[in-house]
Structures are given as C-alpha cells and as structure tokens.
Design goal:
The complex is a heterodimer.
Chain A: H1 3-36, H2 38-56
Chain B: H1 2-24, H2 32-57, H3 62-75, H4 77-89, H5 101-121, H6 128-144, H7 161-172, H8 175-200, H9 209-222, H10 225-232, H11 237-257, H12 260-276, H13 282-301, H14 308-337, H15 344-357, H16 379-386, H17 389-401, H18 405-418, H19 429-434, H20 446-466, H21 477-494, H22 496-528, H23 534-555, E1 561-565, E2 576-579, H24 595-604, E3 609-613, H25 614-619, H26 628-636, E4 637-643, E5 646-651
Parallel strand pairs in B: 1-2, 1-3
Antiparallel strand pairs in B: 3-5, 4-5
Classes of the chains: A mainly alpha, B mainly alpha.
Chain lengths: 58, 655
C-alpha cells in the first residue's frame, strides 16, 4: 500500500477510535450519574422548572 | 498535623538509610527525583524488615523501634541534610519552568486528586480490609509485643509488609499515621513514574514535550479510581505498586547499562513486592522472563562469544535475591501451618475445628488434615476442587473468552476497562482509548515491544482469571500509563492536529471522571479538617456496631475476652477478642450444634463475652435454620446490651 494512503487511513482510524471511546464514555458517565443521584431522576420526571416549583411551593 | 510531621521525619530517615546503602552499592542516579525515590523506598524496606526482626525477637516496643529510628536518623543525618539543602536551593536556581496550558491543567488535576487522597488518609479508616484485618493485626502485634500466629484473623497466613508499616504508625501515633504510609508509597510511585516517563518519552522533535507526557502519564495513573481507592484506604496495594514498578525500573536500567548492581536491586525490590501481597509474585515472574529473554539475546543469541554461564548467572542472581528478600513471611507461614501458601479461608476453618471441637491447647499445632470438609457442600465447587490448577485456569479463561460469543466478548472489553473494577470501580477509559492505537505504529524499538506485548497478554489473561478483582493486576498499571503517554506522544509527533484532538479528549475524559472519585473525599472532608469529631464520623459509618463497641470499651472489665460473631470492626476494640468468622461469610451456626461442647471450648479459651451481629450474620447466607445459636443463647448466654441488631452477651459462669 502507498505509504501516504496508509498514513492518512491511520490518522482516520485513530480519530475514529478515540472519538468513539470518548462518546461511549460520556454516554456511560451520564447514565451512571442518572442512576447514582436521585436528583437527576427528579429532573427527568418533573423537568427543571417543575423541580424548582416543587421546592418553592410551601 | 502530628501525624504529617511524623511521616515526614520517618520518610527522611528512610531516605538517609536508603541513600547510605545505595552509596555502598555505588549506585548513582541521573536526577534528584530518581535518587529520592530509590533511597526512600529502600529505606522503607529496611524499616519493614527491622520491625519484622524486632517483632520476631519479641521486642516490639515504642522505645526499641524509636531507638533504632533515632540511631538511623543520627547516623544518616548528613544525607538528610544534603537532601534538605538541595530542596531548599531548588527554587532559588530560577529553575521553575514555564508551563503550557495543557501542563497547567495536568498539574491542577494532580493537585486536586492529591488533595482528595490526602483527605481520605487523614480521616479515620472505615474501609473493610484495614479495619477488619490489617489494623487489628498491627494492634495485636503491638499488644503482645511480638509477631506471632493469630489464627482467627484473615491475614494470619498472608505476607504482611504493609502491616509492618502500620505497626510503625500505631507505635508512634495511630491509624492516621499508618494510613499516611499509603499516601507516601503512592506519591513515591508517582514521582518514579514521572522520571521514568520523562526519560522514555524524550523525542528529538519535541524534547521539551517529554515533561508534558511525563505529567500526563502520572495523571492517567493517579486519577484511576482504583488507584485513588488503594491510596486513600488501608490496603496493601500501594506497596505492590511502588516496589513492583521500582523492580521494573531497575530492570530497565540494567538493560541499558548491563551492570550487576541493577539486577540485584531489581531482585531486592521484587522480593519486597512479594512480601506485600501473594499476588505480588507476578512482578518477579514477568521481570524474570524479561531478564531471561534479554540476557539470552545479549549474551547468547547475538553475542560473538556465546556465554551460557552469564545467562544462568544473571537469572540466578535475580531469582535468588528476590526469593531471599521475599521469603520471610512465607517461611513463617510454613512454620506455623506446614504450608507456605496456606489459605486464610481454610485457616479459619482450621481455627474453628481446633478451637471449638478439639483441644484449645493444640490450636497452634501444624494441621494434619486439610479442613476443606468444613466447607458447605456444593457439588460444583467439589468438581472444581478436584481439577488440577492448570485445568481450572484453562476452564476459567476459556469460559470467559471462547464460550461467551462475540457480543459478550466486546462487552467484556468495555466492562473490564470501565465498570468491572473491584466493587464497581471504574479503571479508566484513557487506556482503552489509546493503548490499542499503539499497535498501529510500527515498532522501531524491539526492546519496548516485548514489555508491551507481555503486558497486554498479562492483562487479558489476568483479568479473565480474576474477573472483577482488578486489584490483582494493579502492578501493571504504571507500565501501561507510561505506554499510554508514549502513544499520545507518537500520535502528536506524526500528526500534530490529531495529537491536539487526542489531548482534548484526555481533558474531557479526565474532567468527566473526576466527580466520580471526588465524592468519597467530600464525605471525609469535615473529619479530616477537624470540623467533625472522630467519634461522630465513625458512628456515621459504623452505625449500631459503634455503640456496642463503645459500651465494651467503657463498661466491661479490662480482662474480658470477647468472641465476635459477624462483627469485624476489630480495630476499635480495646479488649482482647477472638473472631468467630471472617466477614461473617464463614460464620457457621453448626459449630454450636452441641451447646455444652461449645460452652466448654469457649471456657477453655477464656472467653467471657460474646458479640453477635445478627444482620451481618443473616446476610452471609448461613442462617441459623436449626436454632443452634438460639439454644446456646438460652442456656449459656446472659444479655447485657444491644443497639439495633448488634447484641452483647456475657457467658454464664464467668466473673
């Protein structure tokens, strides 16, 4: 294979793989937060405005 | 603050001692950092073995250990003073370098994680391994002023170099100083990682960049939640990490200079590593392989004068040094049980068998029968036991790799890298993102390719063997972080833009998993800063057990001896105790099937009180289906105190 083509393909593979892991981990991390902290469940259920409304309703 | 001052003094003395020894070996280093790490680590190893010898001789007293430390301090004062002067002069040389933005980010990361680590070690211990056997072992040795066989403790037959450091900590201050040794060992590992990476990432096209990648390697390693966990809690792993990596570093120096002293040092550090944990044996095994391959290549394969004798000599020097330095704990275990690798689980069965069903006097005899028949009868486990170890390893690996299918295998790679650390700890995504890229670059330096391939093979086999216990392959992670930093440098040198993108991903990933680790430190902040009392903190973590332990320490006579059933917060007890089951998993009510016999045995052992943690016992799965303990309680126990599900009883007929 032409070395220049190999050079470019390798760069693409590196970018693809690193970006893939980065995206996967970000998704995994937010999924983890969702499970770990109940406040995120509440945001999911009520939305931020709904949550604020609940906290400030006497 | 006293503990911090003491740890600095002890580390200083360790440095002086190590430096004097290294001078005798005519060992010189390129940098101050490398010299500091080598000397301090060697000095700490000398301290460990001094405490061991004093313990075996029965002189484990404050004055004996303190006297030796003082003498070492006085004898090596010149070296310590020299180091202090060098550190003092450093900022005046105008040597503070200007840092790039990426480097500043890495330094901030290190500072934050270091702070979290420090907060963890400055707060009272609440993590399992430390509180239920490492600290109690150190306390028992100090209480008895000697090192002896404690059959009821989980660590009774394990190598205990870390416990020796904890003995030092307990002699001079307490658990905080003991935990600070973990911090010191981790910091030394980080410093060595920095100097090593700086040396091996030197590239002609970016000479100043080597500092950046050295910092990156340290950050990749130190920010691993697994490393944060072992550095911040009382665990033996920091010792395995430091001495394992030192052994590897000394091997690298030998491969460059071919001087005997480096192979001796590599052997010494490997031996110390084995003394921290049985699993530390992986270090001399891997380095032994390296020594064999490299000496075969240099002295036999490509040498003009083939010298098989040199090859054998080198390998023997390495193996004999490692074995001699590493053997004391295994020799002691052999002396106590007749098997140098006697398993703690069986050991506890042995304790029960001897103590409760036979004569108490013969409890310390060499066991003639393996007490495996005491294990709960399980047909599957019986099958596994009959297999040879190699066959068992084959089945374990093959069931994980070959029988699981491609989807499971892909999931396994992800799980191993991300989630399946010990107790759900994330290892780190940075390894998974960059290590595979290593194989896209043609390997110009064949000497590097061997460690890399071996590390990868070891990781795959090791993780398949140990499953979720990532702690067992921890020794490989410093090497992997050096390689990861080197990979990112390679990318940057060949494709500048792609390299910048990779650094950006590094920043993103580091920012993401910082909060996952930091919350542990946040919980400990008030007590570490003195805003919360030690008692209040421990009560919060140890709940009902804490009240009962406090009652025991204040209300029952000092001569009392307690049998603990399902209770393992041993380090808080100020009375003598026997443990009736490690983590209550092995607590078996059937030992009480004959209440009168059990009572007679307990009397023989001079037990006066019994603590029963009902919840822990029931959680263990060994439920008291036949009410053995109930019958025993009715007949022979007298209720004294309880909090929630933890009960304290007095044995009838005792004062």
């Amino acid at each position: 294979m032409n070395m220049k083509v190999f050079h470019n393909i390798r760069a693409l593979v590196i970018i693809g793989w690193v970006a893939f892991i980065g995206i996967c981990y970000s998704w995994y991390y937010f999924y983890y937060l969702q499970r770990a902290y109940p406040i995120l469940h509440q945001i999911n259920e009520l939305g931020i405005l709904g949550l604020l409304r609940r906290y400030f309703t006497p | 603050m006293i503990a911090v001052g003491l740890i600095i003094i002890i580390s200083g003395i360790a440095f002086g001692t190590g430096r004097v020894l290294l001078d005798r070996l005519a060992v010189q280093h390129d940098s101050l950092l490398e010299e500091f790490v080598y000397s301090t680590a060697l000095g700490l190893a000398v301290l460990i073995y001094t405490v061991l010898i004093l313990g075996l001789a029965g002189y484990l007293y404050y004055w004996s250990v303190g006297g030796i430390l003082l003498c070492s301090g006085i004898c090596t004062f010149a070296k310590i003073r020299e180091l202090c002067l060098q550190i003092w002069r450093y900022p005046r040389r105008g040597a503070w370098p200007s840092l790039s933005v990426f480097e500043k980010f890495l330094v901030c990361c290190l500072g934050l994680f270091g702070l979290v680590n420090l907060l963890l070690v400055l707060s009272p211990p609440t993590y399992g391994d430390g509180i239920h056997y490492l600290f109690p072992t150190a306390q028992t040795y100090i209480r008895h002023h000697r090192i002896e066989f404690i059959p009821y403790l989980y660590s009774a037959t394990r190598p205990k170099n870390m416990v020796m450091l904890y003995v030092l900590g307990y002699l001079f201050q307490g658990d905080i100083l003991a935990q600070l040794f973990n911090f010191v060992l981790t910091v030394l590992t980080n410093l060595l990682l920095y100097t090593t990476t700086k040396k091996y990432t030197f590239h002609s096209s970016c000479p100043s960049g080597s500092r950046e990648y050295a910092l990156l390697a340290v950050v990749i390693f130190y920010t691993m939640p697994l490393i944060q966990k072992v550095a911040g809690n009382a665990l033996s792993e920091p010792g395995v990490l430091l001495y394992g990596f030192l052994a590897f570093h000394a091997f690298l120096l030998w491969s460059q200079t071919l001087q005997f002293k480096w192979i001796i040092l590599s052997g010494v550090f490997s031996g110390v590593c084995i003394g921290f944990k049985v699993i530390g044996v992986e270090v001399p095994l891997i380095i032994g392989l390296f020594v064999f391959f490299l000496s075969w290549k240099i002295h036999y394969h490509s040498a003009k004068q083939k010298s098989f004798r040199t090859l054998v000599l080198l390998l023997s020097i390495f193996c004999v040094t490692a074995a001699v330095v590493g053997c004391p704990w295994y020799w002691l275990t052999y002396k106590w049980t007749g098997n140098p690798l006697y398993k703690a689980k069986e050991n506890i069965g042995y304790f029960w068998e001897k103590y409760v069903h036979h004569d108490a006097e013969s409890a310390f005899e060499v066991p003639s029968v393996e007490p495996s028949h005491l294990e709960p009868q399980d047909s599957h486990s019986q099958d596994v036991k009959e297999q040879s170890p190699l066959l068992a390893i084959y089945h374990q690996v093959s069931s994980n790799i070959f029988r699981s299918g491609p989807k499971k295998l892909a999931e396994a790679v992800w799980n191993i890298s991300m989630t399946k650390g010990y107790q759900g700890y994330v290892i780190t995504p940075l390894y998974l993102a960059f290590l595979p890229v290593f194989f896209l670059f043609p390997l110009k330096n064949k000497n590097i390719s061997l460690p890399v391939w071996l590390s990868v093979i070891y990781c795959v086999v090791g993780l398949n063997l140990w499953g979720p216990y990532t702690r067992y392959i921890i020794a490989i992670f410093p090497v992997l972080s050096v390689i990861t930093a080197r990979v990112i440098q390679n990318i940057y040198v060949e494709y500048k833009r792609v390299g910048q993108f990779c650094k950006l991903v590094c920043v993103l990933l580091l920012l993401l998993y910082f909060p996952a680790t930091v919350h542990k430190g946040i919980n400990k902040t008030p007590v570490a800063l003195g805003l919360e009392t030690r008692e209040a903190h421990l009560k919060q973590y140890l709940s009902s057990s804490f009240e009962v332990i406090r009652y025991v320490n204040h209300q029952i006579p000092e001569t009392a001896k307690i049998l603990l059933m399902g209770e393992y917060r041993l380090f808080l007890f100020e009375r003598d105790y026997l443990v009736g089951g490690y983590l209550s998993l092995l607590m078996r009510y059937q030992y009480f099937r004959d209440p009168h016999d059990a009572y007679r045995r307990l009397k023989l052992l001079k037990v006066t009180h019994v603590i029963l943690n009902q919840r822990k016992s029931n959680n263990s799965g060994y439920k008291d289906k036949d009410n053995y303990i109930e019958h025993f309680k009715e007949k022979y126990l007298e209720y004294l105190y309880h909090d929630s599900d933890v009960y304290l009883y007095k044995l009838k007929g005792t004062p």
